[in-house]
Amino acid sequence: MNYGFVKVASAIPSTRVADCQFNSENIEKLINEAAKKGAGIVVFPELSITGYSCGDLFAQSMLIKESLNSLERLMSSTSNLDIISIVGFPLEHNNTLLNCAAVLHKGNIIGIVPKTYIPNYKEFYEQRWFASSLVHADTTIELFGQRVPLGRNIIFHTPAMNFGIEICEDVWATIPPSSTLTLAGADVIFNLSASNDVIGKHKYLCSILEQQSARCSSGYVYSSCGFGESTTDIVFGGNAIIYENGTLIAKSERFSLDEQLVIGDIDIERLRNERKVNTSFAISVSNIKDQSFTTVNIDQATDETSEIKLTRFIEKHPFVPKGKELDLRCEEIFEIQTAGLAKRLVHTNAKSVVVGISGGLDSTLALLVCVRTFDKLGLPREGITGITMPGFGTTDRTYNNSISIMESLGVSIKEISIKDACIQHFNDIEHDINQHDVTYENSQARERTQILMDYANKIGGLVIGTGDLSELALGWATYNGDHMSMYGVNASIPKTLVKYLVNWVAVNIVDEKSKTTLLDIVDTPISPELIPADENGNIKQKTEDLVGPYELHDFFLYNIIRFGFSPAKVFFLANIAFEGEYDRETIKKWLTTFYRRFFQQQFKRSCLPDGPKVGSVSLSPRGDWRMPSDASATLWLNECSKL
């Protein structure tokens, strides 16, 4: 299966100005190379057969004729290949010269797209030689004995995808042709370009391509000419760039003296899901209701017998950015959490909050948000009451960390053991205290929640929830226990990101004593501590031993909720992302667990307390995720069983 992926290529061939035979031979070589690497489509630079910088030689009939001869030879020499090739050439039509892209497949010329926006400013004088596609209506011409569609409004359809074409300056226009082409159904845009390099232009170019691919929810494959073009007045650095919905998939080396071929995988299913979810995209289609488009079918073979070999990187921690972006993201998320809580405090006129402090990551993050919020509002930190509630499974490490962090942050501290209350409760409901089952565990969670709620009532404050997004997805919370609060600041933060947030606060905001404690909390195993510790006093009940690794579940969550992928595709991607870390059976086991728990536990999410959305995935029943609590998981679990 290809799981919705198509493999595309952007090529920068060796070029000699006005040497059509040399250029077409190098184009042919790269077409063959792209085909061997499994690419379904390859695009070349603008006017790649003649070279872009021919100047007034474009007025020479010999050059135009030889360009057509070379194009015909190229069609013939690649007729045994199933790859689609897009090359640039000049075409005479109705006493004008058009700057065109030719789409070639199996010895046929499938369609021709002329350039629309012809630059004529600064170093560009293209209107001296070329006419715009706007001069002519879309039509059909005869070329090489074939009837060929010619026009700017052509959608090329293959079994795997739809694509459109624009040329260089087109994407710099106020309303690029790619905008209307994608609204007409193009999944991917191919751009044949000849953009010269000056200081700062490359960065601006990349921002345009990034934004256009994101705005159009499309793939964008860009090829711009490089070494070999004339350097009389300008230099062409050569750019082969592939974007998918604003994300860079692959790019070439700039100013290389060698030819280059860049391969990338574009997820068509993901793009189409994005468009379905984004209702504004559908509304925008009305803007082209008065335009007509020609659909050209290309009978390209598809291989469903083997899995596609992806060249793109699959991020195993999709919620956690890399490098400098991580610090920026942590700062932004922390500020969103703070702003959300600040508004709730101002609205309720509350001057105090209550947080249950366990010495774990989630409660620590909630406490840090409270401290930051109180500081911003000019409220004394004493108005934050941290309550540690030791139980049967509390270890010295987590207890000491909870006391230490509250002391160093200067909040009010209260310790209330839940042991006696739980023992009395067990007696009341006739439950054996030595039976460590769900009743034993949930009774402790509900006792803690009762303490927090009642103490908040006593001091006129709000209970701040500590549960995170990953726990909500798995339902790893006690209903009407830690599941409940008056405002949940961590509700849309996944577990894999929580520790980075706490670490960021430790490094960037707090004092040295607090930093030391926070870093130890980051290294503490994740546990609800509802089962007694082992004989050495260490945590015995580790959450990830019970429900599976959170890094896997967060990977599943992101791809299932963000993109609507099927179990088979999520499994395929997970095996690539976690190769060498988890075997296929382990991934299958926890993927099945995720789906089973996700469906079973929706009832907990249906009555979720308020909390701020911070990322692209949220499970709030009032916002991003509205699912019936009694929906059947059979369809998804059946596919899991077949993996």
> What CATH architecture label of the largest domain applies?
3-Layer(aba) Sandwich
Give average pLDDT, whole number. Answer: 94
Strand order of the largest sheet: 13-12-11-10-9-8-15
CATH C-level of the largest domain: Alpha Beta
Number of strands: 20
Helix content: 25-40%
Q: How would the global form be characterised?
A: elongated
Percentage of residues in strands: 15-25%
Multimeric organization: single chain
Report the structural category: alpha/beta
Q: Helix segment count? A: 20
CATH topology of the largest domain: Rossmann fold
The profile of the biggest β sheet is: 7 strands, mixed
Taking all Cα atoms into account, the compactness measure Rg is 31 Å
Show unreliable segments: none
Head-to-tail CA distance between termini: 13 Å
Q: So, the CATH homologous superfamily of the largest domain?
A: HUPs
Summed up, the domain count is 2
